[in-house]
Amino acid sequence: MKNITKVGLSALAGALAITSANAGEMSMSGSIEASYTKGSGYSTTGNPLGMDKELSITGSTELDNGTTVSYKQTVGDSFGFNDSEIVFGGVLGMADVALTSTGSPISAIDDVTPTAFEEANALLGSIDDVNGMDGTYGIRVTMADFLGTGFKVDGMYSTDVGSGDAQADNGSSGDTGGTSDKGVEITVTGSVPMVEGLDVGVGYYDQETDSEVTTGNYGQDEGTAYIKYSTGPVSVGYQRGVVSSQAATAETSYDNRMIGISYKISDDLSVSYNELESRKSSRGTDVDQEFDSISVSYSMGGMTINVADSDVSNSAYNSGRGVDATSVSLAIAF
């Protein structure tokens, strides 16, 4: 395995080191979303007014051999640095190679059922769904057109899941061989040949702890698959995601099933209906958390008005807890 790793890194270094960089450019973009969300039911306190802000600083250049290099740094609500990435595009003419914490392959497809605004569980409840190593700095390789099939293959690897963004330059590893978690994930997505409008995708994630532990989780597996069909203004989709957490005392699993249908009334106005059922199973006990959501979205250039109305039963896997909420938001991209 060490020899394979050395060969792979040597090939990447050879593809990049023999070229020099041309002058690049930097830019900044951002978005802001103001919302009013009012709910009823269990524990619905607090100010219904909210705001979400994000800035993205990006830069790009191109090497003499045609390989592109791009950088991205996000800035969160508190104006602190958030996720970052550097991407080498078209390495060896086959793939994009990234050092990134801005997302992960399986997290990107956790719920792709059609929606006008938000996923069914965006306003209420709390589900355990596929999320992979989202937010952890790792190595990601993406092939947009794998062997000319039209399908995208996207994989990622990290030696310490949950460690967050990249540490300081030249900082040494703090791993002592204890309980750091290695993670690997892969997704395959694309359009079905000769069936216009039909998209499919699958993803798998595996996380393992370096050494045996007596408390807490010592491993996790996640998998998801979806099918989505669009014809004219109508899109329908179905997806299933499963999460299995192995702990020292018991195994807990979550089985999530999502359906959605959206209708594009015009170029600017769309509406959707979404359902989600999340079953938690542990020690022979099952609890079903069920969501229903209707959303509407209207766009005017760089500004979008969104409305969502949702309700959930057995919220956060608590039997008998019902909650509903309505949200109106105004989003502007700069």
Give a verbal description of the structure.
- The chain is 5% helix and 56% strand.
- Strand 4 (81-91) and strand 5 form a beta hairpin.
- The protein has one helix spanning 2-17; strands spanning 25-41, 49-62, 68-75, 81-91, 95-100, 138-143, 152-158, 181-191, 198-209, 217-231, 234-247, 251-264, 269-282, 285-300, 303-313, 323-333.
- It has a 16-stranded antiparallel beta barrel with strand order 1-2-3-4-5-6-7-8-9-10-11-12-13-14-15-16.
- The protein is globular.
- With 334 residues, it is mainly β.
- The termini are far apart.
- It has a single domain (2-166, 177-333), classed as Porin, CATH 2.40.160.10.
- Residues 1-21 have low confidence and may be disordered.
Q: Identify the CATH homologous superfamily.
A: Porin
Q: What strand line-up does the widest sheet have? A: 1-2-3-4-5-6-7-8-9-10-11-12-13-14-15-16
- Name the average pLDDT: 86
Briefly, what CATH class? Mainly Beta
Integer tally of domains = 1
What is the name of the CATH topology? Porin
Distance between the termini: 46 Å
> How many strands appear in the DSSP assignment?
16
State which percent range the strand residues make up: over 45%
Shape: globular
CATH level-two architecture = Beta Barrel
Task: Report the biggest beta sheet as strand number plus sense, adding barrel if it closes.
Answer: 16 strands, antiparallel, barrel
Ranges where pLDDT stays below 50 over 5 or more residues in a row are 1-21
The share of residues in helices is under 10%
Radius of gyration: 22 Å
Structural class: mainly beta
Number of helices in the DSSP assignment: 1
- H and E string: HEEEEEEEEEEEEEEEE
